[in-house]
Known about the structure:
- The protein is mainly β.
- It has a domain at 243-362.
- Helices cover 1% and strands 37% of the residues.
- The protein contains 1 helix and 28 strands.
- The protein has one helix at residues 135-138; strands at 7-10, 18-22, 25-28, 32-39, 43-47, 57-60, 63-65, 68-70, 85-89, 98-104, 108-111, 126-131, 133-134, 161-164, 178-183, 196-199, 211-212, 218-222, 230-237, 243-249, 255-259, 267-268, 294-297, 311-318, 321-326, 338-339, 345-349, 356-362.
- Strand 9 and strand 10 form a beta hairpin.
Amino acid sequence: MNILRPSITAVASMLVAAASLHAQTTATTDPVGFMTIDTPVGSDTIIAAPLTKAPVFQGGVTTLSNFTLTFDPSPGFGSLTTTPHYVQAAGGTQAGIIFDVASNTSNSITLVDNGISPTGLTNGTSVKVVPYWTLGELYPAADQNVAFTPSGTTGGNRRTQILTPNVVGTGINRAPTATYFFVTNASDPTNPAVSYWRSTATGTTNVNNTAILPDSYFIVRNPTNAATNLKTTVAGNVNVGATVVQLDSTSGAPNDNYVSLGRPVDITLDNLGLIASGAFMPSGGFTGGARRDLLLLINNATIGTNKAPSTTYYYVSAGPTNQWASTATGTNNVGTNVIPAAIGYIIRKASNNATGSQFWTNTITIAP
């Protein structure tokens, strides 16, 4: 496939020494490293943050009551909502699922009720508490003219823009929900009081604290008036455990899910886990009318904006045939084709699915 892969400058320093968080709670440190992703001028680049921020806590749940987790001994949590955090199950029956933090005390966390009950987070289940990446952390003021080009305040003066997909709507080909741009003050370009990220939806509000979803992606638009190629560098932790992505369907109509796995390595179609987890409806044949769920990939190597998907994959399960196929290659088995690291894509759930959610589980092994 002619797809630009991010240069894996390093997924290094694979630290596996055990680190004591509390007298009765220990956890293994995740591997750490960094990746650099090219964002060429005149083009949209699809990026999914491939590395996470370091967990502020990893340990076992003591009790679960409705949506509230308690921990003993007390981890001594500070505020987990001043900057956004999430809880990810690191073990148990819900390993990999992410829950947002609604509120917390020094020894408890109340999760957001988003329709998924945390029934698997019972006594002893290991969880991670992880800060979300925010827009201002992935693209700090110090990275001006390296990762992004600052803008003026009017539309015609905007340079690098970051667009986030509409992850809560329904239907296909949904327009992005927000467009962000960095406005700088020439006399004080790194002062967050005067130089910061704004959104077209919120006027002059400082939106540096906007969370970047670990199971979705964003689009870096480096327009022709930015005049130079740029690079996004992400440094952080490798999530070596399971990850779960929620895929939503609407009966009677196809529905797009704008997703990523947040992995720093290429993964073949056969190893995605989409079929094994039952989250992807197989097709009954190779013809258009027999196709069901689709995986749509946008080519970062193609220069342009508002690009249509370049590759459409589907999985055929019919009689003795059980394989991945592409609309571009007929009946060839393309299961060894790779989804590049640090990229997002679209899972288009077919209209034949019932309305509701399926949960796609992916596991990965990264050697130290």
